[in-house]
Request: fold
Amino acid sequence: MGINDVAASGFGAGADAYEQGRPGYADDVVAWLVEHLGIERGATVIDLAAGTGKLTRMLMRPGVEILAVEPVEAMRAKLAQTCPGVRTFDGTAERLPFEDASVDAVTVAQAFHWFDPGPALAEIARVLKPDGRLGIVFNERDTREPWVADLSRLIRWDERERWRVPYTVEVDWAATVAEHGPQFEAAERYDSAFHQAMDPDTLVARVLSTSYIAMLPAADREELAAKVRELAAPLGDRFDLPYVTVAYAARLR
Reply:
């Protein structure tokens, strides 16, 4: 199975904006994943759909081998810059370039919505060693903050299905694993929050890194960037973009 064409076009065009504008993950979330996925010295971990390495770099530890899988060439090139020493691979969740039972854990950050869940979970289970673990993590903008809700309306976030972006807010990924991944035990869940330090330029990059926006004509992207700057003007030169973060960990049966 190939990569979704919206993801391929959008992320290919917006790799630099993705690296500049997308958030990392809170330290407590990374620590929870490391503990619950058994990421320790001697472990081999696939960071799947790794993008520009936002989670990859936070998983790097002495004695841990990280294998970053990313199907978009421009994103892989950026990841090679941000995570020197990490081996990168072209591949998708439904077709991983690794042998059976060869890795200890697989992580998926901000990407599981692009997968065909049944085939992807079967393929992830194939490459995991006995007692291997799967970790899923998502940051979602916290629209309880009024200006963030205004931002979501500005980028027409609720209309993203028209762009064939298969993502809805507040998905219970534990339920997805339970429904489509009989190879896995029930997933554990961890809730947290994250505040991304922002300035107007970074906020524009954050918006332009969105897959369906990155593939718009240049004139449309420039018009949207101007509106984002107008929205951000009352916030000053420095402000925070709040996120709610949810992580899951599931053990192979």
Q: What stands out?
A: The chain has eleven helices and seven strands. The domain at 5-143+166-196+242-251 is CATH 3.40.50.150 (Rossmann fold). The chain has one domain: 5-143+166-196+242-251.
